[in-house]
Amino acid sequence: MKVEDINPEKRDDWAEVQNYINAINFSISELERLPISNRLLKNTHKILLAGVRGKHKISGEFRTSQNWIGATIKDAIFIPPHFNEIPDLMSDLEKFIHNEEIMVPHLIKIAIIHYQFETIHPFLDGNGRLGRLLITLLLVSTGILKKPALYLSDFFEKNRNYYYDNLMVVRTSNNIVQLLKFFLVGIIETSNSSIQVFKKIIELRREIENVKLPKLGVKIDKGYALLYYLYQKPIIESKEISENMKISAATANRLISQFVEMEILTELTGYKRNRKFIFKEYFDIFQSK
Fold it and tell me: How do residues 104-115 score in pLDDT, each as one tens digit?
Protein backbone atom coordinates (compact mmCIF):
# COMPACT_ATOMS: atom_id res chain seq x y z
CA MET A 1 0.00 0.00 0.00
CA LYS A 2 1.47 3.34 -1.06
CA VAL A 3 0.74 6.74 0.48
CA GLU A 4 -0.66 8.07 -2.79
CA ASP A 5 -3.10 5.15 -2.84
CA ILE A 6 -4.70 6.37 0.37
CA ASN A 7 -7.87 8.36 -0.25
CA PRO A 8 -6.98 12.07 0.18
CA GLU A 9 -10.11 12.53 2.28
CA LYS A 10 -8.81 9.85 4.65
CA ARG A 11 -5.51 11.70 4.95
CA ASP A 12 -7.47 14.87 5.75
CA ASP A 13 -9.53 12.94 8.29
CA TRP A 14 -6.34 11.76 9.96
CA ALA A 15 -5.04 15.34 10.17
CA GLU A 16 -8.35 16.42 11.72
CA VAL A 17 -8.13 13.58 14.26
CA GLN A 18 -4.62 14.70 15.24
CA ASN A 19 -5.87 18.28 15.62
CA TYR A 20 -8.78 17.04 17.72
CA ILE A 21 -6.40 15.17 20.04
CA ASN A 22 -4.16 18.23 20.34
CA ALA A 23 -7.15 20.48 20.95
CA ILE A 24 -8.71 18.30 23.65
CA ASN A 25 -5.36 17.86 25.41
CA PHE A 26 -4.79 21.62 25.31
CA SER A 27 -8.27 22.52 26.57
CA ILE A 28 -8.23 19.92 29.36
CA SER A 29 -4.84 21.18 30.57
CA GLU A 30 -6.15 24.75 30.47
CA LEU A 31 -9.05 23.74 32.75
CA GLU A 32 -6.51 23.36 35.55
CA ARG A 33 -6.07 27.14 35.63
CA LEU A 34 -9.04 28.57 33.72
CA PRO A 35 -12.79 27.89 33.61
CA ILE A 36 -14.52 27.17 30.32
CA SER A 37 -14.66 30.54 28.60
CA ASN A 38 -14.93 32.15 25.18
CA ARG A 39 -11.19 32.74 25.26
CA LEU A 40 -10.59 29.02 25.81
CA LEU A 41 -13.01 28.12 23.01
CA LYS A 42 -11.28 30.50 20.59
CA ASN A 43 -7.83 29.10 21.38
CA THR A 44 -9.12 25.55 21.05
CA HIS A 45 -10.79 26.40 17.74
CA LYS A 46 -7.47 27.68 16.40
CA ILE A 47 -5.83 24.32 17.14
CA LEU A 48 -8.73 22.36 15.62
CA LEU A 49 -8.46 24.15 12.27
CA ALA A 50 -4.66 24.27 11.98
CA GLY A 51 -3.75 23.01 8.50
CA VAL A 52 -7.14 21.38 7.74
CA ARG A 53 -10.47 22.34 6.15
CA GLY A 54 -11.62 25.73 7.36
CA LYS A 55 -8.09 26.93 8.12
CA HIS A 56 -8.53 30.02 5.91
CA LYS A 57 -11.78 31.05 7.61
CA ILE A 58 -10.35 33.11 10.49
CA SER A 59 -9.59 30.34 12.96
CA GLY A 60 -9.69 31.32 16.61
CA GLU A 61 -12.01 34.28 16.12
CA PHE A 62 -15.77 34.68 16.12
CA ARG A 63 -17.19 35.26 12.66
CA THR A 64 -17.65 38.76 11.29
CA SER A 65 -19.81 37.70 8.35
CA GLN A 66 -22.92 35.62 7.85
CA ASN A 67 -22.77 31.84 7.47
CA TRP A 68 -25.46 29.24 6.82
CA ILE A 69 -26.06 25.52 6.43
CA GLY A 70 -26.83 24.71 2.80
CA ALA A 71 -25.44 25.24 -0.69
CA THR A 72 -26.48 28.90 -0.83
CA ILE A 73 -28.14 31.27 1.59
CA LYS A 74 -31.31 31.19 -0.55
CA ASP A 75 -31.84 27.45 -0.07
CA ALA A 76 -30.22 27.22 3.39
CA ILE A 77 -31.89 24.82 5.82
CA PHE A 78 -30.60 26.93 8.71
CA ILE A 79 -29.29 30.50 8.96
CA PRO A 80 -27.58 31.24 12.31
CA PRO A 81 -27.87 34.61 14.07
CA HIS A 82 -26.34 37.72 12.51
CA PHE A 83 -22.64 38.10 13.28
CA ASN A 84 -23.24 41.34 15.19
CA GLU A 85 -25.13 39.31 17.79
CA ILE A 86 -22.36 36.75 18.34
CA PRO A 87 -20.44 38.52 21.17
CA ASP A 88 -23.59 38.98 23.29
CA LEU A 89 -24.92 35.49 22.56
CA MET A 90 -21.61 33.82 23.42
CA SER A 91 -21.32 35.95 26.55
CA ASP A 92 -24.79 34.76 27.61
CA LEU A 93 -23.77 31.15 26.90
CA GLU A 94 -20.65 31.53 29.03
CA LYS A 95 -22.76 32.88 31.91
CA PHE A 96 -25.21 29.98 31.49
CA ILE A 97 -22.35 27.46 31.68
CA HIS A 98 -21.25 28.86 35.05
CA ASN A 99 -24.71 29.59 36.48
CA GLU A 100 -24.92 27.29 39.51
CA GLU A 101 -28.45 28.41 40.35
CA ILE A 102 -29.85 26.40 37.42
CA MET A 103 -30.86 23.21 39.19
CA VAL A 104 -30.87 20.62 36.41
CA PRO A 105 -28.75 17.46 36.07
CA HIS A 106 -25.35 18.03 34.49
CA LEU A 107 -26.10 15.91 31.42
CA ILE A 108 -29.27 17.87 30.66
CA LYS A 109 -27.44 21.16 31.03
CA ILE A 110 -24.60 19.94 28.78
CA ALA A 111 -27.12 18.95 26.09
CA ILE A 112 -28.67 22.44 26.24
CA ILE A 113 -25.23 24.09 26.05
CA HIS A 114 -24.34 21.97 23.02
CA TYR A 115 -27.60 22.92 21.31
CA GLN A 116 -27.07 26.62 22.05
CA PHE A 117 -23.50 26.57 20.73
CA GLU A 118 -24.50 24.81 17.50
CA THR A 119 -27.40 27.22 17.00
CA ILE A 120 -25.28 30.32 17.58
CA HIS A 121 -22.68 28.88 15.17
CA PRO A 122 -20.10 31.45 16.30
CA PHE A 123 -17.30 30.53 13.88
CA LEU A 124 -17.24 30.52 10.09
CA ASP A 125 -16.17 26.86 10.06
CA GLY A 126 -15.44 24.09 12.52
CA ASN A 127 -18.52 24.67 14.70
CA GLY A 128 -19.48 21.00 14.59
CA ARG A 129 -16.00 19.85 15.58
CA LEU A 130 -15.74 22.34 18.44
CA GLY A 131 -19.34 21.74 19.55
CA ARG A 132 -18.65 18.03 19.96
CA LEU A 133 -15.36 18.70 21.74
CA LEU A 134 -17.20 21.09 24.07
CA ILE A 135 -19.33 18.16 25.28
CA THR A 136 -16.24 16.28 26.43
CA LEU A 137 -14.81 19.43 27.97
CA LEU A 138 -18.00 19.96 29.97
CA LEU A 139 -18.09 16.33 31.11
CA VAL A 140 -14.60 16.78 32.56
CA SER A 141 -15.18 20.24 34.04
CA THR A 142 -18.32 19.04 35.89
CA GLY A 143 -16.47 16.02 37.29
CA ILE A 144 -18.56 13.42 35.46
CA LEU A 145 -15.33 12.27 33.79
CA LYS A 146 -11.83 12.42 35.24
CA LYS A 147 -10.26 12.01 31.80
CA PRO A 148 -11.58 12.96 28.31
CA ALA A 149 -12.56 9.38 27.48
CA LEU A 150 -16.03 9.89 25.99
CA TYR A 151 -16.63 11.32 22.51
CA LEU A 152 -20.09 11.54 20.95
CA SER A 153 -18.75 12.38 17.47
CA ASP A 154 -19.16 8.82 16.18
CA PHE A 155 -22.72 8.57 17.53
CA PHE A 156 -23.69 11.89 15.95
CA GLU A 157 -22.12 10.85 12.64
CA LYS A 158 -23.89 7.47 12.55
CA ASN A 159 -27.20 9.20 13.30
CA ARG A 160 -26.48 12.40 11.39
CA ASN A 161 -29.93 12.98 9.88
CA TYR A 162 -31.70 12.26 13.17
CA TYR A 163 -29.27 14.59 14.99
CA TYR A 164 -29.88 17.49 12.59
CA ASP A 165 -33.64 16.87 12.64
CA ASN A 166 -33.67 17.08 16.43
CA LEU A 167 -31.71 20.34 16.37
CA MET A 168 -34.16 21.81 13.87
CA VAL A 169 -37.21 20.75 15.90
CA VAL A 170 -35.94 22.82 18.83
CA ARG A 171 -35.26 25.81 16.56
CA THR A 172 -38.66 25.70 14.89
CA SER A 173 -40.96 24.63 17.74
CA ASN A 174 -39.00 25.10 20.98
CA ASN A 175 -39.48 21.40 21.70
CA ILE A 176 -36.21 20.22 23.22
CA VAL A 177 -37.45 16.96 24.76
CA GLN A 178 -36.59 14.75 21.79
CA LEU A 179 -33.12 16.27 21.49
CA LEU A 180 -32.47 15.60 25.18
CA LYS A 181 -33.58 11.97 24.75
CA PHE A 182 -31.33 11.61 21.70
CA PHE A 183 -28.38 13.11 23.61
CA LEU A 184 -28.85 10.80 26.61
CA VAL A 185 -29.12 7.74 24.36
CA GLY A 186 -25.86 8.88 22.77
CA ILE A 187 -24.20 9.07 26.19
CA ILE A 188 -25.37 5.53 27.04
CA GLU A 189 -24.38 3.95 23.72
CA THR A 190 -21.03 5.75 23.57
CA SER A 191 -20.25 4.76 27.18
CA ASN A 192 -20.99 1.10 26.46
CA SER A 193 -18.91 1.22 23.28
CA SER A 194 -16.02 2.90 25.10
CA ILE A 195 -16.04 0.20 27.79
CA GLN A 196 -15.66 -2.48 25.11
CA VAL A 197 -12.85 -0.52 23.44
CA PHE A 198 -10.97 -0.16 26.73
CA LYS A 199 -11.34 -3.90 27.42
CA LYS A 200 -9.86 -4.74 24.01
CA ILE A 201 -7.00 -2.29 24.54
CA ILE A 202 -6.21 -3.87 27.92
CA GLU A 203 -6.19 -7.35 26.35
CA LEU A 204 -3.90 -6.18 23.55
CA ARG A 205 -1.58 -4.46 25.99
CA ARG A 206 -1.30 -7.58 28.15
CA GLU A 207 -0.45 -9.74 25.14
CA ILE A 208 2.24 -7.36 23.90
CA GLU A 209 3.81 -6.68 27.31
CA ASN A 210 3.71 -10.27 28.56
CA VAL A 211 4.46 -12.19 25.37
CA LYS A 212 6.11 -9.98 22.76
CA LEU A 213 8.18 -7.28 24.47
CA PRO A 214 10.20 -9.74 26.63
CA LYS A 215 11.76 -10.97 23.35
CA LEU A 216 13.67 -7.66 23.21
CA GLY A 217 15.81 -8.69 26.17
CA VAL A 218 17.97 -5.79 27.40
CA LYS A 219 16.22 -3.44 24.98
CA ILE A 220 12.84 -3.94 26.64
CA ASP A 221 12.82 -0.43 28.17
CA LYS A 222 13.08 1.10 24.70
CA GLY A 223 10.31 -1.26 23.61
CA TYR A 224 8.02 0.06 26.35
CA ALA A 225 8.84 3.64 25.38
CA LEU A 226 7.96 2.99 21.75
CA LEU A 227 4.78 1.13 22.69
CA TYR A 228 3.54 4.02 24.84
CA TYR A 229 4.24 6.43 22.00
CA LEU A 230 2.22 4.23 19.64
CA TYR A 231 -0.81 4.49 21.92
CA GLN A 232 -0.70 8.25 21.30
CA LYS A 233 0.11 8.02 17.60
CA PRO A 234 -0.45 4.62 15.95
CA ILE A 235 0.97 5.67 12.56
CA ILE A 236 4.64 6.64 12.75
CA GLU A 237 7.88 7.20 10.84
CA SER A 238 11.40 6.25 11.87
CA LYS A 239 12.56 9.88 12.07
CA GLU A 240 9.95 10.94 14.60
CA ILE A 241 10.73 7.91 16.77
CA SER A 242 14.39 8.85 16.73
CA GLU A 243 13.57 12.43 17.71
CA ASN A 244 10.89 11.61 20.27
CA MET A 245 12.86 8.87 22.04
CA LYS A 246 16.18 10.68 21.62
CA ILE A 247 17.88 7.68 20.02
CA SER A 248 19.96 7.40 16.88
CA ALA A 249 18.32 6.79 13.51
CA ALA A 250 19.97 3.36 13.33
CA THR A 251 18.62 2.38 16.76
CA ALA A 252 15.14 3.63 15.83
CA ASN A 253 15.18 1.60 12.60
CA ARG A 254 16.30 -1.55 14.42
CA LEU A 255 13.63 -1.12 17.06
CA ILE A 256 10.93 -0.60 14.44
CA SER A 257 12.17 -3.67 12.53
CA GLN A 258 11.85 -5.73 15.70
CA PHE A 259 8.32 -4.44 16.21
CA VAL A 260 7.52 -5.48 12.63
CA GLU A 261 8.98 -8.96 13.26
CA MET A 262 6.85 -9.30 16.39
CA GLU A 263 3.81 -8.22 14.33
CA ILE A 264 3.17 -5.16 16.47
CA LEU A 265 3.86 -2.78 13.57
CA THR A 266 2.97 -3.17 9.89
CA GLU A 267 4.70 -1.26 7.09
CA LEU A 268 2.28 0.89 5.09
CA THR A 269 4.06 2.35 2.07
CA GLY A 270 6.10 -0.40 0.40
CA TYR A 271 9.02 2.02 0.07
CA LYS A 272 12.62 1.57 1.22
CA ARG A 273 12.77 5.19 2.39
CA ASN A 274 10.28 7.53 4.07
CA ARG A 275 8.31 4.54 5.23
CA LYS A 276 5.28 4.73 7.50
CA PHE A 277 4.29 2.05 10.01
CA ILE A 278 0.94 1.38 11.67
CA PHE A 279 0.08 -0.17 15.01
CA LYS A 280 -2.63 -2.07 13.19
CA GLU A 281 -4.26 -4.16 15.94
CA TYR A 282 -4.66 -1.05 18.08
CA PHE A 283 -5.87 1.04 15.14
CA ASP A 284 -8.40 -1.64 14.15
CA ILE A 285 -10.00 -1.60 17.60
CA PHE A 286 -11.22 1.93 16.93
CA GLN A 287 -12.16 1.18 13.32
CA SER A 288 -14.44 -1.70 14.31
CA LYS A 289 -16.23 -0.18 17.29
Answer: 999 999 999 999
